[in-house]
Amino acid sequence: MLQLLRTEQISDKINKGESEQKSERWRENKMSKVVVFDHPLIQHKLSIMRDKNTGTKEFRELLSEIAMLMVFEVTRDLETEEIEVETPITTCKCKVLSGKKLGIVPILRAGLGMVDGVINLVPAARVGHIGLYRDPKTLEPVEYYCKLPEDSENRELLILDPMLATGGSASAAINFIKQRGCHHMRLVNLIAAPEGIKRIQQDHPDVDIYVAALDDHLNDHGYIVPGLGDAGDRLFGTK
Ligand code: PRP
Ligand code: URA
User: How far apart are CA 59 and CA 189, in angstroms?
Assistant: First the structure.
């Protein structure tokens, strides 16, 4: 159902063009896990999203559906405990979730398109929001909005953003969230570029990354190739 890429395989893809020596150092570093989902339903839906002729309504619905399918696997290793349940027939031991509660944090704007899908499967999850823009002079990411659930530092947070391009936005968002005392996170993206994966693994080796597709590269404008274009614009019909 899912493809767990060994870090070496990911490293080979993201280090193409770099010296062997640098690649060797990269391999020695502790890195986060990268999981690429190859489920046929996810791939089918993603192919429709990539099509430039797919309109806003369908794009929005598909993003939500894929987010729901992804979170099913992203949460596969959540802790459970046994409880006793009385069925109409007898009593039995059953499993329920235990351990850290979940929180979800979409990165504004496009991350919003993944919230409904995740909430469908994890209705008790609290939702925070984080928004960033890039300062036109310094090019540094600036946080313009952040509201996290009160007890976020005790939760396992799923950071949602369809696109991981340079990784600048996600890395900064994770930094801002860590500054608030939260250290248990997973990053969930629809499409990632090797450059973005590398950036997160370098900046946040403690954050595992889950993607529906690992694309080829970034173009000169920082767009993922082949990608799907501007996710925020396609989601909200702005442009
Ligand atoms: C997009 C996307 C990511 C970011 C990825 O958002 O949703 O947040 O770009 O690029 P990066 O990895 O190079 O940082 P954008 O900044 O366009 O904002 P939007 O969601 O409001 O459209
Ligand atoms: N942001 C997007 O929305 N799409 C890309 O391809 C890169 C960044």
Answer: 15
